[in-house]
Predict the structure.
Amino acid sequence: MRQIAFTLFLSLLAYSASAQSETLRDQQKVLAGKIGEVEDSKSTYTQEWAYNEEVPYRVKLTVTETDKKRGKSETTEYRFNLADLDENLVREETSRDLKSITAGVGGKQNMVEIFEDGEQQNYDDEVSIFVSDSQAA
């Protein structure tokens, strides 16, 4: 999945903000189908990739983290423009038993909107998608 996600990220980044082709929409649909539920030792992460058909370069990634012991959930929503992401800043990361693919904004500008449980937080300069293992990444 890493190769697929990496390739899709690079493909999506290649489009400018004015490119509203069917190809971009098709790639968005493929990527949305590849993103799903990931577990580590303490939590389950449910992810959803969404976009508007009229403006497919504007993306909303919703990640719901559910604590396995307490059952408590926290939802984080990331809103960003694909044109803001820099293909040179796409990398694979590992933190304990959780792996992710992270894409950064060019120039380290804070252009990723973040909402936690519906409340707007500070903007960030990157967004991450969790993956199940290195082979899938």
In short: The longest strand covers residues 55-67. The first helix runs from residue 2 to 13. DSSP finds two helices and nine strands in the chain.
